[in-house]
# Entry
Amino acid sequence: MSRASYLAGLLRPVVIEELDLGSLFTYIPRNPSSFTPTRTAETDPLLKGTYLLLGEDEKDNRRSISQYSINDADAYIKYEAFLGQVRELLQPLIDNAPPNPFLGNFRERIRAIKTILSFLSAAIRHRHILIPFYEFFTGPAQQILDRYFESDILKATLASDAVIGAMVSPRQNGSAYVLLHHVMGEAAGKKGVWAYVQGGMGAVSDAIASVAKKHGADIITNAEVMSVLCNDSAHSSMKDLPYHRAVGVQLKDGSQYFADVIVSNATPYRTFLEWLPPEVLTQTPPAISQDYINHIRHADYSCGSMKINCVVQSLPNFSCFPSSADGSPGPMHMGTTHLNYSMQAIEEAYLQAVAGKPATRPVIELTIPTSLDKTLCVLKQLHNDKALPSSYHIVQLFIQFVPYEVCIDEANRYLSDDDGEKDDKKLLENGSVSAWDIPRFKEAFVTRCFDMVDEFCPGFSQSIIYKDVLTPVDLERVFGLHKGSISHGSFALHQLAYARPVASADSHSSYRTPLKGLYLCGAGTHPGGGVMGAAGRNCANTILDDSNTFRRLNR
# Structure
């Protein structure tokens, strides 16, 4: 299973249909899909150990929400209906490049016109929500949630989608769009929900890979790219030409691969500022304008996310909803568990993170894929030969408001004046290491997260057999995510659609790049990330358009 990705809910139906993926992987629906526990009556006398459980059944949702507000139970139905209409409005804009009928070749312009007409058709059908849609697209999540709901626990549960993967407060403009991005998909035919994939999220990758191989693709894994090759240095006639075209890639082992089209699914930062030869950026005349490079270099990559994967001896046992005597999974184990039920706590966690301090009480979402997918429970022992009990489960913690750059004063709190740690202080001060490289600092924050889980599930931390920690710095080093940004750049309003990855007046605002033969197809392009496939499909259409134009010009 994947170390990073853990849920499916945004993979575009058109991608599944066109690649015929439906029979190659299996969604596992989660019902209930959301569980928000509270602490015991002794520690939280107001909520007294109650819990909020949300799923597919409208009556069950009403019953659960009514504990906190009868008005909210009615408002939740209206809220979900509104989100459904907003999803319909957005569909044409997701499955196509940002439409511009004045740029591109004939096919692109026709596609842009069709996209605009599809959006206008949806807008006419839902014209009564266009103004609320505009507000939802640009406004703060908290303001909108405050208008719909009274109870803090329901608002905080829904607001988690407004901050997950984003260094943003629910009180900030644009946070409502982050929420919208996380609920605009579907899984197994159900709108706005997330599901597990049988065998883990790698099963989706395997499915796409099998289709690619069927159509003649060769796939090389464990092959780290070191650079993008520009002009074919193997051809002496091209050695003295300006670097104007991408022609291949060089791997870490020195092997080189050449092609007419190079497509990068890496972040724009990694592609342009780490992989391109310096000569490409400095030559005269420039192959890539300094303005384009400045956009890439200075884009907002803030994210603040962290992941901890755990193997535990048994299912977490929530104080407010105890597990069954036989230890079998219950409804509290099947969906996403939200360990925050206060809007003010989310705000405080954000303020700490932007000040360079890991949140005292971070936003934590907990999932247990093995509660529904027994195919993941096949190991008898860990890689260190430690035997696993038959009752073991996999628990994944997604943690928000964990800064990539930690202020030095905060890091120094965890260092003593011992000789070894004096060296760590010096390295921190000159920027040679990150605070996340210091074991004591890293482990202290992991313990803080586990202690928070223990408040709801006593004994959780003692049940951990193995843990895999991915701090923002680890996400950068292991997966090449600049500053640990899981979306290859923030979902700030100024970095969406026509401005993703670069706000450009020409056709380089999305999948094409100024360097001929090089395209971007990752989450740093429209419409962003989340195991969606939309950016890749849109990029593929752009490449096909360019290929057809090239053929026509050379007949």
